[in-house]
Amino acid sequence: MRILITGATGLIGNVIVQKCRENQIEVNYLTTRKDKLTSENGIKGFYWDPAKGEIDGKCLDGVSAVINLAGSNIAKRWTEANKAEILNSRIDSLKTLRTAIEKSDRHQIRSFVSASAIGIYPDSLDCYYTEEDTQVDNSFLGEVVTRWEDEISEFNRFSFPVATIRVGLVLSMDGGALPAMVRPVRYYLGAAFGKGEQWQSWIHIDDLARQFLFAIEHGLEGVFNGVAPNPVTNARLIKEIASVLNKPLFLPNIPQGLMKLILGEMSYLLYASQRVSSRKIEEEGFEFYYKNICSALKDILHSEETPSDIYQKEFV
Questions:
Q1: DSSP designation for 116
Q2: What is the DSSP secondary structure assignment for residue 292, as one 8-state letter?
Q3: Which of 119, 280, 290, 311 would give a disulfide with 204, using CB separation of 3.0 to 4.6 Å?
Q4: Measured distance CA(26)–CA(233) in Å, rounded
Q5: CA-to-CA distance for 90 and 28, rounded, in angstroms?
Q6: 269-290, pLDDT tens digit by residue?
Q7: Which fold has domain 2-301?
Q8: DSSP states of 19-42 as a string?
């Protein structure tokens, strides 16, 4: 089996590549850097430039499934230029990929799985969101995810099943938000954001990577939330981090106004509340290794000192 992966060296992509190697699944990946093209150990690189609509059509040779993770990092100041990059990187990647599939022998493709985000759900302390909810958050992130998923839905014109995984807060010390939460706690500066009541729907990086491959293996179709079964509040998350690290928490919570001064509009990410259900993918038969925040944090933080054998070579 061979899978084409976009965003293969990102936080999620790295772990998916590792799991592919463990299961003797070959990987094609796309890169915008011609000097990073490699072909070894069942992993082969191909050039593309989504901003220009350029792609090496050979990237689809022998491919039976596609995982799309492409998109610029949202955790940076939301200037007008960065907003355009965040949105266009997602839209252009999907359009370029779709054009390549249209020109290929697409009958060999049996599954297409794309990342999305739970940021589409409205900010709420009370709602418990499922994939059936159609309300959209009135924010820049809500706009991005809506247009992102509209572009993903264009792949439904093909005969293969299309699955969208709305990713929550990914727990990993190799990137994402967790290191920024852990660092102040380690230095006795940990504190919840705002009242700490906002819900954070998290998922262990290992479970998330397994979800993408599970969606391919089972030919899943439609939208699935990429979150663990038990969301926690921000206050609880910070408290559990402190507990695992055996550090005290004594500082007052961080007011939203202060973070807005520091981070601008992007500070919204720290205070938005989305309590999201994982039931749909569980009903498909997916089993989580990490259902509770305590076990997830213990696994991640206790193993942090042990070098990961994730495929770290810079092949993108």
A1: E
A2: S
A3: 290
A4: 39
A5: 19
A6: 999 999 999 999 999 999 999 9
A7: Rossmann fold (3.40.50)
A8: HHHHTT-EEEEEES-GGG--EETT
